[in-house]
Amino acid sequence: MRSPLAGRLPYLGLALLALALDRGTKILVEAHLDRSRSVEVIPGFFDLTYVRNPGGVFGILRNLDEGIRSALFTIFPAIAIVFIAAYAAHLPASRKLAQASLALILGGAAGNLVDRLRYGQVIDFLDVYWRDYHWPAFNLADSAICIGVGMLILETVLAREEPAPDAAAGAQPAGPAPRGGASERHSA
Predict the structure, then answer these.
(1) Where are the domains of the chain?
(2) Do 123 and 50 meet the contact criterion of CB atoms below 8 Å apart?
(3) 22, 47, 115, 124: the active-site residue
């Protein structure tokens, strides 16, 4: 009998890598960035800015009562992690793009959940902007989740474009046989 992890170790590794990179960068941000200022990386486009986000992605629901917000953003991600892991375990390991997508989502969700459990909020530090327009600050966990979701959408689109198994085998469509064979064309 094959192990349930057979063929899935690379995806587990990818999820753990996303989690480790997220945690590592957040540890560096806490140790080296002051919350009172930004560090310019690409002038006029990208800064490192240490902020704490009490809300959800892009700060949604940040004004919700702290107790409700804390429970909401801790319980739901924990439940989502369980469902994502279960779905990934159910999905064939041969669905590589879907498995990699789920691994990135899982690693990113776990990274942000660690922050929620430690601080009640998430550490964000990637600040992308153009002139006066600032995209809400984000982190590597958010990036892993967004890339994973994008890859999952791509995988879904590509799966729909694959020919059906019958068409791939060269089977004829159901229905009446085609007319006008060679013998019928010459007999008139």
Answers:
(1) 28-162
(2) yes
(3) 124
CA pair distance 111, 124, nearest whole angstrom:
12
| CA-based max dimension of the chain | 92
Q: Is 47 a catalytic residue?
A: no
Out of 22, 115, 127, 142, the active site residue is 142
Among candidates 41, 44, 18, 39, which has minimal Cα distance to 29?
Answer: 39
The number of angstroms, rounded, from the C-alpha of 105 to the middle of its chain's C-alpha atoms is: 3
Q: Is the pTM of this model over 0.70?
A: yes
In the chain, % helix, strand, coil (3-state, to 5) comes to 55, 15, 30
In angstroms, the CA 53 to CA 101 distance is 25
Question: Tens digit of pLDDT per residue, the chain (188 long)?
Answer: 566 666 899 999 999 999 999 999 999 999 999 997 899 999 999 999 999 988 776 666 777 777 888 888 889 999 999 999 999 999 999 999 999 999 999 999 999 999 999 998 999 999 999 988 989 999 999 999 999 999 999 999 988 876 655 555 555 555 454 444 444 444 44
Rounded to 10 degrees, the C-alpha dihedral 41/46/50/54 comes to -170
Q: Which two tokens stand for residue 78?
A: 């924990």
